[in-house]
Design brief:
Elements: H1 3-32, E1 37-41, E2 57-63, H2 67-80, E3 85-87, E4 101-107, H3 116-126, E5 127-138, H4 144-161, H5 169-175, E6 179-187, E7 197-204
Parallel strand pairs: 1-2, 1-4, 2-3, 4-5
Antiparallel strand pairs: 5-7, 6-7
Helix pairs in contact: 1-2
Length: 225
């Protein structure tokens, strides 16, 4: 555990407060309204999505790889949604059987995973055939000038908020075998120009999902709360 990870967890809500209030909160609510059945959220962070899961969700499982952030998530789950199961796991190695979930949720997570293609393959694997991936993600801008700015300043974004703002994430979702059913290009409000380009949408897992699971060791998992 690094000092950087501790500071990031401690300051994340404060860093995002203006953006959340200016419109990200509404985007989250609109996205999560589509979550039904057995739901997995990767990179749960501080639990910003928790208030928006409704009665159509039969079960909610959240993963978070970083211990400092995980502790904040656990605290929020205890207060707001105690039936939620919380596990420590990276998106690249999800400790679940194939075809476990109806819906997977990723909000501002795929920009920060170490191996984005592997994380998407894992999401595809744990979703049932026809299951849905709901996402809000940073994305490389379609404007060449803004994209060049993202490339120049990406080092700063990695340093401050631990993510790559210039990934072609929509392309990566398709390359992982998902079928894009909705994709809205938007901008995160009250965010610097080089990190504001974003996508919001949904994608469907194909009828046949690959089985490439490499489960975590049992000692790396955290049981249900």
């Amino acid at each position: 555990m690094t000092l950087r990870a501790k500071l990031f967890a401690l300051t994340y809500d404060r860093q995002m407060a203006k953006t959340e209030k200016a419109g990200l909160r509404a985007l989250r609510e609109g996205l999560i309204a589509g979550a039904t059945g057995h739901v997995l959220e990767i990179g749960g962070g501080t639990g910003a999505n928790l208030p928006y899961y409704g009665p159509a969700v039969e079960s909610l499982t959240m993963t978070e790889p970083q211990p400092p952030m995980l502790r904040r998530l656990q605290h929020r789950v205890r207060a707001q949604a105690p039936a939620t199961k919380v596990l420590r796991a990276p998106a690249e190695d999800l400790p679940f059987d194939d075809h476990t979930f109806d819906v997977a949720v990723s909000t501002l997570v795929l920009c920060g995973v170490d191996d984005q293609p592997r994380a998407l393959r894992e999401l595809r694997r744990v979703l049932r055939p026809g299951g849905r991936l709901l996402f809000i993600e940073h994305v490389r801008s379609g404007d060449p000038g803004t994209a060049r700015l993202q490339d120049r300043l990406n080092w700063l974004n990695r340093l401050v908020v631990c993510c790559d703002c210039n990934r072609p994430t929509l392309d990566s979702i398709q390359e992982a075998g998902f079928i894009i059913t909705r994709a809205e290009h938007t901008a995160l409000p009250k965010a610097p120009k080089f990190v504001s380009p974003a996508i919001m949408g949904s994608a469907t897992a194909p009828a046949l999902a690959p089985s490439t699971h490499s489960p975590l060791a049992a000692g790396d998992r955290l049981g249900p709360m």
